[in-house]
Amino acid sequence: MNLSRRLEKVRGTESTTDFIEAVPPNPFTAQGGAAGPATLGRIHDAKSAEAASALDLVELPQTAAGASGALRALKERASQALYERLGARITDSSLEEAELHQYVKDELKAVVDEEQVPLTTAERQRLIREIIDDVLGHGPIQRFLDDPSVTEVMVNRFDQVYVERDGKLFMTDTKFASDEALRRVIERIVSKVGRRIDESSPLVDARLADGSRVNAIIPPLAVNGPALTIRKFGRDALTIQKLIAYGSLSPEMAELLQACVLARMNIIVSGGTGTGKTTLLNALSSFIPDSDRIVTIEDAVELQLQQDHVVRLESRPPNIEGKGEVAIRDLVRNSLRMRPDRIVVGEVRGGECLDMLQAMNTGHDGSLSTVHANSPRDAIARLETLVLMAGMDIPLRAVREQVASAVNLIVHISRLRDGTRRVTHITEVQGMEGEIVTLQDAFVFDYSAGVDANGRFLGKPIPTGVRPRFTDRFIELGIHISPHIFGAQPVRGR
Fold first, then answer.
1. What is the pTM (predicted TM-score) of this model?
2. 15-62 tens-digit pLDDT
3. DSSP string computed for 455-472
4. Are 355 and 364 in contact (CB under 8 A)?
5. How far apart are CA 376 and CA 354, in angstroms?
6. E runs forming strands in 299-407
């Protein structure tokens, strides 16, 4: 650079044209070809542009979150206003269900209109549906109750809800607004079946209109707030054919069980919690002839018998004064005076076991019941324990003789690791040998087949090859079964 050029540069009067020619192209130059500002300015502007761009990106979710929060606040205000408008009418038993629904819809529309909040048609419909679910239904878990793929709904606390699908548990993003909202849903459920839940009676078993089983527990027993568990019942009862299609039992098993029910054998269905004992009991009851008079006895009505000649009895807890309790044992004793052909006890879990066994031993053949146990052998031990819970001083040998004489067959069902429910044992109770009740398996599940790539068990129930002694009774009654179902050659009866 010569002297004159240096002087011009110092004075600031250097030729712009020459300068542009001398300086290489600038990456920060604007697209129109005009020079950009100084380097620091360009960096600052670039950072500002990035920040603005990021702000634009964040703004949309923040706006959506704000809209969702506003809708939630509107829902809470509208729900509160609706409760104030309804007052005691929401628990008025004289109102028909359809009439109450229509009244709530009309009042809710008036409440939403009074808010004068601009809502789209979709938002308005969603708001009304959610509030009606809160007020008349089961709140945010209503959609799971309407979903046929969900078999169980578990609310650990108001903001933690799990569901069971295909035998597996999944956490959901569903939440109740508060403990009070969850408590209202629980009270609505139990009040419809004449039960109550409060601090003096903080746990309850109940049922929904479709027969789904409900258990609720509240503080002070539930430390984290109210907890609710709903085991759903399908709209259509599972038949033996469906259980065969699902792989829960084999056609040979079904043929044997049908013959046992027709031959009026006393059957105990055993299994752990949630294995499907009641479902299997329902399926077995479908084999009972329509001409038989059936009396069912349950803690909370769950059985869905398809016959017409059925009397359904349900136990009753004590009232707030601790009086008025009617236990299952009382109902079992009362059922003996009702001329039953079959007695079906939903589950034995106490002293009623003694009365049930006595009924089985005194002419009431063909009775069915369920018991919690981990195997057929454990089922026998549990029945013995339940008899002793009756409070009578009976020698253990006498108890075992009673069990061995009353129970003909144990059907054991398990929930396997892959989530499927399978009948793993069909076991004959043969009698007593010394001090021991002898059992003989007719079918067992084959675990040795392993699992497939998805972890599903490949095994199936297989016959042991031993023909049960009670098959002679089938021949006497003219009940025919295929000889091959036991995996052995036919044996002639006496």
1. 0.71
2. 444 444 444 444 444 444 444 444 444 544 554 555 444 434 333 344
3. S-B---EEE-SPPPTTHH
4. no
5. 19
6. 310-314, 342-345, 368-372
pLDDT in tens, 242-299: 999 988 999 999 999 999 999 999 999 999 988 889 889 999 999 999 999 999 998 8
On the 0-12 / 13-18 / 19+ scale of CB atoms within 10 A, 139 is buried
426/77 Cα distance (integer angstroms): 58
Whether the Cβ atoms of residue 387 and residue 394 lie closer than 8 Å to each other: yes
Rg (alpha carbons) of the chain, rounded to whole number: 35
Which whole-number Å values give the CA distances from 134 to 233, 306, 468, in the listed order? Answer: 22, 33, 55
Q: Closest Cα partner for 372 from 353, 399, 398?
A: 353
CA distances from 273 to 114, 371, 380, 475 (A): 50, 10, 17, 36
Question: DSSP readout, 441-458?
Answer: EEEEE-GGG-B-TTS-B-
Burial of 242 (0-12, 13-18, 19+ CB in 10 A): middle
Q: Per-residue pLDDT tens for 135-162?
A: 777 888 988 988 888 989 999 999 999 9
Rounded to whole angstroms, how far apart are CA atoms 276 and 159? 29
Return all residues near 429 (Cβ < 8 A) that are at least 6 apart: 380, 403, 404, 407, 408, 409, 410, 437, 438, 439
CA distances from 46 to 36, 38, 42, 50, 434 (A): 11, 12, 6, 6, 94
Give exposure, 157-187, as e/b (b: 16+ Cβ within 10 Å): bbbbbbbbeeeeeeebebbbbebebbbbbbb
Place of tokens 């712009």: 16
Q: Is 287 helix (H, G, I), strand (E, B) or coil?
A: coil
